[in-house]
Write a structure and sequence with these properties.
The chain has 17 helices and 21 strands. A six-stranded antiparallel beta sheet has the order 6-5-4-3-7-8, with helices on both faces. A hairpin with a 2-residue loop joins strand 11 and strand 12. Bound molecules: adenosine-5'-triphosphate and magnesium ion (MG).
Length: about 450
Amino acid sequence: MTTLITPRGAPMTTNRPLRPIVGVITADDSPRLLYRTDGGAWIVANHDPFMRAFGDAAIASILRAEYATGRDGLRALVAAGDYFDPNAPAEVEAADRTLRSTTVSLYRLPVDGDTDEISDAALQELLTAVATTAGDPMRAERAAAELTAPVAAPTVVCQAHAHLDRPRFEPIDLPGGGQYWPRTLFDTSDVAFLRELRAGGSMHARLSGPPGSGKTTLVDAAFGEDIICVQGHPDLTVASLYGQYLPGEPGSGTAWRWVDGPAVRAAREGKVLLIDEANRAPRDVDDALLSLTDKRRQIINADRPDLPPVTAADGFMVVVSYNHSDIGIRPLSASLLRRLSMHVRVDTDYGVAARLGVGDDLLQVAENLRTSGRRYGIDHDCEPAWYPQLADLEGAEAMRRHGPQAMFGPLTASATEPARVRDTARVFASVFGTVVTEIAELGPSN
Ligand SMILES: Nc1ncnc2c1ncn2[C@@H]1O[C@H](COP(=O)(O)OP(=O)(O)OP(=O)(O)O)[C@@H](O)[C@H]1O
Ligand SMILES: [Mg+2]
């Protein structure tokens, strides 16, 4: 027996098989569904736009379009407009771009018999659900995979971390306290490599990787007090990087004073400009960095034509950090990517985690999930499914004295897909020998 949350929010139980159906609201505000029939066709269903134009979705009839491949079904699901033509390269490209940043919702619908026969009424109910309730949010590829194989990403039981390498390098004191254990990068340590890059004077770097993998801490360890850091966020402007007029100091007699921005200060002083989470900032920020990061190494501020261009001093370097899959991110521009030519993918070294006191059991859970997560990425040609990073493991370890249930929440804190949290609960239960709920519950003690 399975409990479902219906579109109206009321729980309902069913013994019928549950068919996964993916829903999304597209750019033009219309809910759309993707499902796979027993015959293997991929169907995208939505309200008839002609009927919707009359403003009454309730009486709208349902349109079903059939696609031969799951990929085209997915593209149609997220495409703008009501029709998608798999033979139009521009439409395919636009849909692929959307797919890379889209989260969709997976719903499970009880269906009797053949999925070729799903009724309009059932689809109508699902379309309402897409528009009004949340299913399990997940990346589109993953949701599509669930349609063909309605099972979670495989879990693989592997050895505990007997093979984990001990850290090769001595720890480095971090400016704010604590220690950083360098990881191996090429033939040296990550810290030594970044420092060498800066000393070379001609290359800039980008560090990508999942939350909590140690991107920011790596830059901190490498450059300490020499960093000028800017946090990427949607309201960041070119003025907040280059400089702006601010109210004068009280009593100074000037109403306004010019204050250089962090990019100008870092360039003048030969420091490292760290744009943390750069892909949360608007595209203008990419453009503002272009002249600084190419051979010119200059800032020409169009708002201050009276000032000479600022040329970067020796030691200046830009480092950008970002993660590939999260809410509210965008792709960095190709022009900026070309200039930040040293791209390092940052991932947790579980050997470092062991050195920091993370227990064998947690490391075994983490390794299982990393194996299945990476395999999932390879099989589906997408980013790996979530697996724990150092921040997650440290959080879980800190709760050890309160028992496995208390450890589970911090362990999965950065996992955004409920299906992956369930995978983790299964692996966790098999390693710890105890079942945990996905969220800790506070309630009466009996
Ligand atoms: N090699 C390491 N040695 C010691 N501690 C580390 C190391 N790498 C990461 N950490 C610790 O892991 C935690 C997460 O690191 P950090 O904040 O740098 O991750 P991040 O990748 O920048 O995450 P986000 O994308 O969320 O900003 C921090 O507590 C940090 O001190
Ligand atoms: Mg960070």
